[in-house]
């Protein structure tokens, strides 16, 4: 594992969205307002754990964000949403911790797919899960900038793997390190970038990371957990181009061949039930829609997505 805090960019093709490769601040999901997303909990963590002087906290965050933004223009980066681990707000968090700490779970392992700077992994560690249980998978080694944000390069150790959730090959590093090894597979703010077909591919790939039972299917009690932005009402497709500040043509997303799905509770449930059926797995699927406030964000920051949009959570338990 590399310990330098610089990130080497690479061509990630269509595995991540075209709009994230725009090199501009002229996007509706770009703000300079850090304080509006900086919770007391995160500020205290940066002052005590990372030992950043109180008056340096905001400039420090801004400096790290500038590097993150120069790599990929994700809404969670532009809006500083990465300061708020979504896992902390997920209603499955107690189930995740209970499963990882259960005496029945030997050598517990948790994988975060699209782990970014490792904020959810740190949250889980601070909630009592040992670092040796924590795995990160991402297209780019953003975790290097997590070390820079929290100044914990010598303290925090997860197992970090560069990989693509759409890569189905059996000889990738992700396959070697993670396939069949995980008790909980978590993914937040990733699946909403996919069209219908890639959504199914990604969900099946997440399933492959789970430990297997004697029947070769997902091990009983294993969990697939995550969240995406989603609709309170009906599902549809997202016109990303419309979201550029310049109106039509303001987002490269218009060049995307297929538009990402904006799921509803029903369509996301159908997706997971369909994937489980194809794999022949017995599962219990729970999906819930939550508001931005419930996920620690002022709804005004996300208003550009539409008033019926919030966070869709899922928990898929293997029976
Ligand atoms: C919007 S960020 C979300 C980060 C974090 N999970 C969160 O909830 O704040 C999306 C992350 O997923 C990663 N990602 C995007 N497409 C991916 C893919 N095909 N395979 C693996 N990771 C991917 C990105 O590099 C980025 O770190």
Automatic annotation (TrEMBL):
Gene3D superfamilies xref list: Vaccinia Virus protein VP39 (3.40.50.150)
Region listing for Disordered, in residue ranges: 1-20
Entry's transmembrane regions: none
UniProt name for this protein: Methyltransferase type 11 domain-containing protein
Organism: Lophiostoma macrostomum CBS 122681
């Amino acid at each position: 594992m590399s310990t330098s805090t610089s990130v080497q960019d690479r061509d990630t093709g269509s595995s991540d969205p075209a709009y994230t490769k725009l090199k501009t601040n002229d996007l509706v999901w770009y703000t300079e307002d850090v304080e509006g997303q900086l919770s007391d909990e995160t500020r205290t963590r940066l002052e005590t754990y990372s030992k950043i002087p109180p008056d340096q906290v905001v400039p420090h965050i801004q400096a790290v964000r500038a590097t993150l933004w120069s790599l990929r223009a994700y809404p969670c980066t532009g809006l500083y949403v990465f300061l708020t681990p979504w896992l902390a707000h997920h209603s499955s968090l107690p189930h995740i911790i209970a499963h990882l700490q259960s005496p029945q779970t030997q050598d517990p392992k948790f994988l975060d797919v699209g782990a970014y700077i490792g904020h959810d992994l740190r949250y889980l560690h601070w909630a009592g899960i040992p670092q040796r249980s924590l795995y990160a998978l991402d297209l780019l080694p953003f975790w290097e900038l997590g070390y820079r944000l929290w100044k914990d390069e010598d303290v925090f150790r997860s197992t970090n793997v560069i990989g693509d959730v759409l890569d189905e090959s059996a000889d990738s590093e992700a396959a070697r390190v993670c396939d069949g090894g995980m008790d909980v597979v978590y993914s937040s703010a990733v699946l909403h970038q996919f069209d219908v077909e890639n959504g199914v591919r990604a969900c099946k790939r997440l399933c492959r990371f789970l430990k297997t039972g004697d029947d070769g299917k997902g091990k009983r009690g294993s969990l697939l957990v995550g969240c995406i932005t989603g609709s309170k009402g009906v599902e549809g497709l997202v016109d990303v181009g419309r979201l550029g500040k310049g109106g039509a043509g303001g987002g490269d997303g218009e060049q995307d061949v297929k538009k990402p799905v904006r799921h509803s509770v029903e369509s996301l449930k159908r997706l997971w039930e369909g994937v489980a059926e194809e794999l022949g797995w017995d599962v219990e699927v729970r999906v819930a829609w939550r508001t931005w406030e419930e996920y620690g964000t002022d709804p005004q920051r996300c208003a550009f997505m539409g008033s019926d949009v919030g966070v869709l959570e899922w928990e898929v338990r293997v029976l």
